[in-house]
Amino acid sequence: MECERMLASMMCALDGELGAREQADLEAHVAQCAACRTEWERLHALEQVLRHVPPVAPPVGFAGRVAARVDRRHHHRRVVLGAISLGLGGMTAAVLLVGPALLSLSASAGAILPLLEAGRVTLGRLCDATLALLGSFWVTLGALALPAALLAVGGLAMAMAANLAWLGLVCKLRYPSTQTSIKT
Q1: I need a surface site. Which of 26, 42, 56, 81 has the fewest CB within 10 A?
Q2: What is the rounded CA–CA span in Å between residue 148 and residue 19?
């Protein structure tokens, strides 16, 4: 656990972000721990190599692509925040507009119960009518199933017969039978 904390301190030290106290703790730990000393020497050597490498120019258009990606992310964030704001504003407006009407209805709470009962009865009757309509549709479908199947089979048979007749006609026109006579 201590070595993991010291590895993070090594990274901060390389970036010049350690205070005097943390730097002293790191140096004391590196002096006692062989594994961390090896890691510190490796990181320090790598840092020295990287400091002397000339910077490489980015590919052409790199900055434009990065800027476009950042703009897209900002655009998406603005769209999401706008949608949330619009939704919250709409809900607030609905509460402000409907709230007074609900308060006035609460004053006449005695009229609400008969309305709810009438709605329940109406909904029950609508369900019954829907079930009756679906039942009659099912009966009609059952009554038409056999004749429709017979019509389909008959139509298929007629189509096959017409195709065979057409095929026969095409064969006769394309390959007429030739009479060959043998002369002696």
Answers
A1: 56
A2: 90
